[in-house]
């Protein structure tokens, strides 16, 4: 891995803090934001909609976060939120809590100073596509030096639209510390505009764009010692899965099974709680909810098979704040 932030992300230890959904200066055709993130002022910590500062801390603790990745929006409102959350995280978790910011604007010296003073560690710039290859002598070169002067680690993070040698030049010149190239992806939020630009999905893939791992990008950029190519498969199979596992480990009950994908599996029954007590089920193997009982899934199967219960279901769900259910399997 190129940076501490990337190392933590690979371990599933990076909380994603989305602070703002408006981009006044940009209208990128490849912007992946969906309806719940595009042009909104809402803040999200991972999948959790933030209603108060305590939600951010709770989400970080839920996943034993090693650090935070901050993204979303450009206006001054986003800067005010970002500095507040940086200070909040550093106060709660200390200097070891690594933070990085992904931004599509240069920001200027005053903002770099404010971010640094608030506790930001890395800043990853995403220049507009129309500037690629023509950034030397512009504010995009200046901001790299300014950020470093203000105590930040400057870097680039770009989508793998095409190979661009100028990013390598900035690395070799020492202006930027590293460059992350994300595999070019389609999402619900951008696929129409992406298709209008002539891009299509890779055959048999849910998000990766055809040609986003072509030889030019891989050979010309990803072979550089300070470039990291982050594939969509790695994001799903490693980053996301490991984050779920960290959450599941923290919140699972004694009777929950944690799967290799980081989901939780348990049984759900609709008998009266007294039925479980009468059957001698140990208290640690079930819990009473408002209109059902959650129980170890294997115990539910045994009870239905033995005729002690009429029916139930085995539930698999994410350990996220919204508890999204992945699958329900009837047991009868």
Account of the protein in words:
It contains 11 helices and 15 strands. 37% of the residues are buried.
Based on the structure, what is the oligomeric state of the protein chains?
A: single chain
Q: Which second-level CATH architecture of the largest domain applies?
A: Alpha-Beta Barrel
Backbone shape: elongated
What is the tally of helical segments? Answer: 11
Distance between the termini: 49 Å
Order of neighbouring strands in the sheet with most strands: 3-2-1-4-5-6-7-8-9
- Fourth-level CATH superfamily of the largest domain: Aldolase class I
Give the tally of β-strands. Answer: 15
Organism: Halorubrum coriense DSM 10284
Pfam family, one: DUF8061
Protein name: Radical SAM protein
GO molecular function: catalytic activity; iron-sulfur cluster binding
List keywords for this structure.
six-stranded antiparallel sheet, single chain, 15 strands, alpha/beta, 2 domains, 332 residues, nine-stranded mixed sheet, TIM Barrel, 11 helices, elongated
